[in-house]
Amino acid sequence: MSPEEQAQILDLAYDYVRYDKIAKGKLIAAELNDRERELLLARSALDVVTTAPAIPPPATRPDQGHGTTRLHLALGGDTGGDFLEFGWRAVHHDWLDPLPGYSDNFALEFGKLAGRHYHADAGGEFFKLDQFQLIRLDNYEPRDDFFGSISWNVTTGLEALSVRPDDHSLMYVLRGGGGVSYRLGRAVLSYALLSADLAGSHRFKSDLNLALGAEAGLRLNPGPQWRMQLGLRQLADVTRDDWDRTMLEFGQSWAVDHDLSLQLDVRRERLYDGWRSTVKAGVYVYF
Hints:
By secondary structure, the protein is mostly beta strands.
């Protein structure tokens, strides 16, 4: 090993020891402990001047990424019939938005609204609000040999959810979870979390429902324009409403331009009366 490589290793080891002290809540005192002193003595024995590593600039700066406000129009279908979906988001970025200029391990959204105009299978047309999320934040910080961060998510707002057959009710939901995430190569982020859903609706026996479970999934970036996500959630009802459920989700997007993308979403949900599917494809515009 060359002296330059030895110097880089010793510099990193010393920096990590200092970081580890801070992470564990210990004060950084002026006096060095034995480990720090050994590292500095070994480093001083090398006649190598430390230089800052060259960090290449990103291909796309953060200010050059897609606009944070989003509009979309999608065609789809579920157990209620075919629908035309209109959506708007105030800010900021999610897992299927164009990636250039953004980190690939988080989603942050405020003011996400979606409504659907249905053409029912049995005839007739109607419009309903499908979603009004106040906030959604997914922070999946991957673990590695140095860092052991906790990954977590939280979502709250109004969502149309199935409680009984032919009853797609709008209810207030607070959802959250915590766990771990790991990188599987440069283009794949995996995660596994314990999760909980708290929902409020007059359709529940006590107006509130609590479900506990787990979720896992993959976030993939196969190419500069192509993004994918796979997810599985399993929740067990703990409030005697018989609302155990399993959710499978698949989504992918293709960035036509930094402010325009095409998306396909498929969702399968298992309730006590069987599986239900929702499929939609749409155009998403950012500004």
